[in-house]
Amino acid sequence: MNEFEVAITDLSHDGQGVARIDGKTVFVSGALLGEQVRLRIRKRHRNFDEAETIEILTPSPHRVEPRCSHFGQCGGCSLQHLDAAAQIEAKQRVLVDNFARIGKVEPESWLPPLTDEAWGYRRKGRLSVRAVAKKGRVLVGFREESNPRFVADITHCDVVHPALGPKIGLLGELVGGMEAAADIAQIEFAAGDDTIALVFRHLKPLSESDRAKLVAFAQQHGFAIYLQPGGVSSVHPLWPEHPRLAFRVPAGEGVDDVELEFQPLDFVQVNAGLNRRMMLRTLELLDPQPQDRVLDLFCGLGNFTLPLARRVAEVTGVEGEHGLVARAADNAARNGITNARFQVANLFEDQRGTDWARKPWDKLLLDPPRAGADKVLDYLPHKETKRIVYVSCHPASLARDAGILVNQHGFRLKAAGVMDMFPHTAHVESIALFERR
């Protein structure tokens, strides 16, 4: 028997409903907490099963009609069927649970959720490309929700930047008309404040005819086109000759904003509007003072470093990727900032012998990748550090590191909260403030 009627008792970390059948956990796509559904088992595993919803028997009061006609097929979003307030509540529950279960800590107060526009927010991403003989055309889009090996057959995307989202289908037509249709592996996109770049990864050299088609498409739709014939270092502009990608971030009231230039494959925060709000909250929590010396770890392009430099005596940003550090330094010079320094260092290796790790910093900012910052916390912060702000893209690693800061370094977890960097997905971005006891 593959069909069952079940009650959904939870939401998983990736936004699927959770049920139990004969004591075994079942993850149910398309189902929401509190619903009674009929499901069909799609795949069985030793410790859990995967299923799809085939009928909603008792809907959640928070269920809404998905805006996108591709919802359920495309794997780009998993929560469009859940209203916005309930999405935030679900993410908050994940953060609360991780603090309690993993870190064994609880914030003294919860910050109000940070949100921005829920549609057209995505300025960075990767679109898969697949020439499908059975369909007689090229598909461009995100991976399918039920089978990530396949590219979802979509014509538009409501969460991608509005200058690009409605034109996903046109990209498929463009590639389908190229001689290299079978040799385009992916298209990455990156949007600055004024320019949208498309990076075409091609497995074989492009003909002059194909290059001309890309240029014509760029001119018609206002895109910058880059080509990537090999690794990341091979990326170069096709048209225009010298495109410029940049975005502005605030440095707080009464202080000039900072403009950051970047390359199309650089890491930048996906949600431009939320990034601006996150910056202001970070400044509020870190409370930078003119005499402060601040260390910014996992600094990237200087997204936090340079706005902080406008408000403190000294700031040093540390990042493991050489290209990002070089561009961060260039951005400092371009903005007339002279009190920011940048260092290249692998923060997942012991760096306690470096000059920057030995210095007595007043405040510390952490914005690590999913793995978190536990390796850094073996030797930082020093006793001189009184305040830490931790920006996290993974609640489990934040919770683990919060436990380290509280139990091993003598900090209090003063406040924490979620930030909706990826609306309509189950991704949980969060921020936490720690103060020395």
Automatic annotation (TrEMBL):
Transmembrane segments: none annotated. One of its GO terms (biological process) is methylation. InterPro entries: 23S_rRNA_MeTrfase_RlmD (IPR001566), MeTrfase_TrmA_AS (IPR030390), MeTrfase_TrmA_CS (IPR030391), NA-bd_OB-fold (IPR012340), SAM-dependent_MTases_sf (IPR029063), TRAM_dom (IPR002792), U5_MeTrfase_fam (IPR010280). Gene3D superfamilies: 2.40.50.1070, Nucleic acid-binding proteins, Vaccinia Virus protein VP39. Its EC number is 2.1.1.190. It holds the Pfam family TRAM. S-adenosyl-L-methionine binds at residues 269, 298, 303, 319, 346, 367. [4Fe-4S] cluster binds at residues 68, 74, 77, 157. This is 23S rRNA (uracil(1939)-C(5))-methyltransferase RlmD.
